[in-house]
Design a protein that fits this description.
By secondary structure, this protein is α+β, with helices and mostly antiparallel strands. Helix content is about 50%, strand content about 15%.
Amino acid sequence: MGHLIGDKIIKKIAQVIRNSTRESDILARIGGDEFVAILFGSNKEYFKEKFQNLLKQLENEPLSVAGEKVICSFSYGIASFPEEGMDLEELIEIADERMYAFKNKVKC
């Protein structure tokens, strides 16, 4: 669909995620279509449910592009501090591996 449409999709996903986070949470785009979120004071199961709800919301609210409806989506991976790692690089690596596992699972 091209870079302009890709940018609109990324902005839509970022907006949906940002609207569902708290002021204390940190959301950042780290490259391309990859984001990192640091979400304080919750457990992995809570976030799995939250992200599944966000995916449903995106499915129910397609982006309108040149008269076409485009359903936006994202993949995610979650890592917990301090249970799974003590530094940011280690946690991002764990979450990244889980994100790719999620992507592969969804494609099947």
